[in-house]
Amino acid sequence: MDIKHLRYFVAMAEAGSLMKASERLHVAQPALSVHLSNLELELGVKLFERSHRGITLTDQGQLLYERAITLLRYHSEAILGLKRNKAKPAGTVSIGMPSTMPALFAPPLYKAMREALPDVSLYILDASSPAVYEWLQNGKIDFAILFNIPEDIGLSLSPLFIEDYWLFGQFDEEEDDVDIPFYDVFDFPLALPCRSTAWRKILEEHADHLGKSLSVNFESESYMGLRSLAMSGECYTILPRSSIIQDHLNGFVQARRIIEPEIRGILSLANLQSKDLTDAQKATREVLTATIRQVANELGLGSKGSPSRKVCPGSLFGGDRRVPRPAHRPISP
Fold first, then answer.
1. Are 208 and 235 in contact (CB under 8 A)?
2. Are 205 and 283 in contact (CB under 8 A)?
3. pLDDT in tens, 243-267
4. How far apart are CA 286 and CA 71, in angstroms?
5. Which of the four pLDDT bands, split at 50, 70 and 90, describes residue 326?
6. Host domain of residue 274
């Protein structure tokens, strides 16, 4: 006995005759008669009393009819529920971002995901840019927020916003938010991201163009360490404003926007071109992009103009080694 047999049985019981049931089901009357006989044979009971007036349920037939109505309703609800869930994104989506960003973007992302994609769990990892880049290439994460990445390295990029380079520290002047020519930056003792980062590579290129070298007293993959040094007054650091904006707005650190030239980079949401995105990942990408752009706009982080030359982060431990993409299909955590 299967769902089709039960559906035919219920139609016959409600129609009161094989002829009317045949018309309702668009099934030939002899075929219905065969289905009924097979069902009674399988159950070992008589389900209908037959007469010239039609068919009526026996006591056993009435019992089966009541159970069949419930079973068919459950079956219909289950199919409908599965179809609805199929159209509703669900699952876990992972994203890696530089260590300065979760504090800035996690609260609005949490709210946006809860409202737009309640059945999708967002898994955030943070580290240095080279580490995030390697995680994406190795398939450990689904998305990554990366800085000034070229468009021809096997990644799909969704631009978020453009940021200027800023010099942070404790300056003698009380005036804040003024510009400083890049040539004057060489007079400051600096703590900078490691040479493997895209930020640092672009700085070095501009310095080389001027025939100068940066006075770097301290290198670190830790943005929190660079932030602390800038606030201490011991030295200065060059970072995107988003990485330290809360401390800047609260007056814990001063800032100078670097000009002549204006050094900029574009922050993008990246995913592997070789990996097909699930419905949950596609929907999450839209939420991530819209939310981060909105936050950046509210904080005044976006900048106009063209970004500096795009480069790739190096390996996790420095150098310029390009991390190969895995040959196997990436697996999310």
1. no
2. no
3. 888 888 888 889 899 998 888 888 8
4. 40
5. very low
6. 91-299
Which has more confidence, 289 or 246? 289
Q: Which amino acid, one-letter code, is at 300? A: G
Looking at the structure, tell me whether residues 7 and 37 fall in a common domain.
yes
Is the domain of 198 the same as that of 51? no
CA–CA distance, 185 with 195 (Å, rounded to integer) = 17
Domain identity same for 8 and 111? no
Query: What is residue 87's predicted lDDT score, i.e. its pLDDT?
Result: 65
- Look at 52-56, 156-160, 253-257, 313-317 and tell me which has the smallest mean pLDDT: 313-317
pLDDT at residue 225 greater than cutoff 60 = yes
Q: What angle do CA 112, 117, 119 make, to 5 degrees?
A: 135
Query: In what helix (H) or strand (E) does residue 66 lie, and over which residues does it extend?
Result: helix 59-87
The answer, yes or no, to whether residue 289 has pLDDT greater than 90, is: yes
Residue with tokens 């001027």: 210
User: Measured between alpha carbons, how far is 321 from 314 in angstroms, rounded to an integer?
Assistant: 6
Q: Are residue 114 and residue 194 in the same domain, yes or no? A: yes
117 in the same domain as 215: yes
Q: How many CB atoms lie within 10 A of CB 262?
A: 16
Place of tokens 């075929």: 31
200 and 113: one domain? yes
Nearest to residue 130, comparing CAs of 324, 286, 328, 312?
312
| Residue 146 domain-assigned (yes or no) | yes
Query: What CATH number does the domain containing 29 carry?
Result: 1.10.10.10
Largest CA distance in the chain: 109
pLDDT average, residue stretch 216-237: 87
User: What total of structural domains would you count in the chain?
Assistant: 2
Q: How confident is the model at residue 124 (pLDDT cuts 50, 70, 90)?
A: very high
pLDDT top residue among 84 and 7: 7
Q: Which of 35, 56, 87 is the last residue of a domain?
A: 87
333 part of a folded domain = no
- Mind giving me the DSSP string for 134-154? HHHHTTS-SEEEEES--SSSS
